[in-house]
Amino acid sequence: MTRVSQKIQPFSQECNDCPIRHRAVCARCEADELTLLEQIKYYRSFEAGQTVVWAGDKMDFVASVVTGIATLSQTMEDGRRQMVGLLLPSDFAGRPGRETSAYDVTAATDLVMCCFRKKPFEELMIRTPHIGQRLLEMTLDELDAAREWMLLLGRKTAREKIASLICIIARRDASLQLNASDGELRFDLPLTREAMSEYLGLTLETVSRQVSALRKEGLIVTEGKRQIVIPDFDLLLEETGDDSDGGFLI
Amino acid sequence: MTRVSQKIQPFSQECNDCPIRHRAVCARCEADELTLLEQIKYYRSFEAGQTVVWAGDKMDFVASVVTGIATLSQTMEDGRRQMVGLLLPSDFAGRPGRETSAYDVTAATDLVMCCFRKKPFEELMIRTPHIGQRLLEMTLDELDAAREWMLLLGRKTAREKIASLICIIARRDASLQLNASDGELRFDLPLTREAMSEYLGLTLETVSRQVSALRKEGLIVTEGKRQIVIPDFDLLLEETGDDSDGGFLI
DNA sequence: CGTCATATTGACTGGTGTCAACCAGTGTGG
DNA sequence: CCACACTGGTTGACACCAGTCAATATGACG
């Protein structure tokens, strides 16, 4: 688990071509504001498994996830770990006005981040309200997601947790790529069993058992190690314990 | 559980005399901005146990908690409940830009809120950046608290959960009133066993058992039903599972 | 082929949930 | 005034879900 080696990937440096342009912290920026951001941004790439920063370490930048998935985790003294954030493309990492990272930030998959040095970003935030407004909106969304997650952690059974996680990832995948080939959903699980267990507050053995159970019952089909097919999404939704109706696609 | 009856309590209507003036969403406002807020604010009082709004119901205001404690809870179809927010004086309820409440909002104790009709508040937010800035700051704090809470829900034992909750309330109590009479901490538990169980993702029986266990071991002393004395705070802290050092008093 | 990381499965344990009885305090109405 | 109900809390007996420990698969990669 090294924290070196971030080769600059071939990637368009133009904000206008950016895949997350309309959803990230810069979403509301006008052309001139974008120019200012463009001057202080730089890209960093990480390989799957690499740590971006450790909890407590100095973090002198904030960043948007461009491609890939990052996780935020907390660790207890005796090693118990709980994931507390799952950052997908366009999500924001780091906190303006704070020196160090409160969490371990890890690349769950290969990852590209659009980074801004913290100081200039903070100054820019004061001058351009559009950034602060968008950040507030995104933080409120994060808070809602965290509260949904708390319900899962506090009250759901292992089976419901697994079904919920698969539905969450399926939804997010569907919202990015519109691969609605009939009612059947197909996507890659971007998390290892261990990462899933850290997300769900379970052991990795329980995760494995419950995934197997859902497979044996035909609620999901696995192809290879990571690929998942959901033959009937509504059927799986019923296993999450959530209200049947409340399912809005992101 | 009615939702009527909010008698206006005798309470200073002057923002300058407000006990939460320096910590609430209005904390950064200048005198002139405060005047604008003052024009659209109104107080509402609730008795312990009353519901402020139900999840899904229209909520046409946002509000600061002035005195007392409010809770945010989610309910699953079959009745399982999880608390997802604990609002203390100066904390903010409601979300600008959203019509309905996402959670049940309940008065855990007698409660006074300083309310703003949503529309005027949103318009004010656009014109006075200080409100949005402060709200962002508070939301980021809420998010951090929610993530700490997720660690508790996902990874802590019942005993650690109870110890953690008592420490959290003791800290907050100490931060409001500086009653540092020696090393001994004394305060009222503002939550019923049921509310504690909803906070912690436990049953109320388990809460009761673990509180009794801590009492029998002398880690806490109970006087009457609700009053709690902590003879040695550090000793109790060791039962939370948290890092021994990281304990900053709010 | 061996090694390593990841995943699966089994046997067993134990912590927490469930169901139920009981207690204490408070308010109510005959 | 006392019987009664009602709410909030405590304690016990027992069941069961998920954790623990361990063995075995699977696949990637040298």
Automatic annotation (TrEMBL), chains A, B:
UniProtKB keywords: DNA-binding, Transcription, Transcription regulation
GO cellular component, one term: cytosol
Record keyword Acetylation present: no
GO molecular function term, any single one: DNA binding
Ranges where the Cyclic nucleotide-binding domain occurs: 25-142
Transmembrane feature ranges: none
Pfam (any one): HTH_Crp_2
InterPro entries: cNMP-bd_dom (IPR000595), cNMP-bd_dom_sf (IPR018490), Env_Response_Regulators (IPR050397), HTH_CRP (IPR012318), RmlC-like_jellyroll (IPR014710), WH-like_DNA-bd_sf (IPR036388), WH_DNA-bd_sf (IPR036390)
Domain of life: Bacteria
Domain HTH crp-type: start-end pairs: 156-234
Ion transport as UniProt keyword: no
PANTHER family in UniProt: CRP FAMILY TRANSCRIPTIONAL REGULATORY PROTEIN, FUMARATE AND NITRATE REDUCTION REGULATORY PROTEIN
The name this protein goes by in its record: CRP/FNR family transcriptional regulator
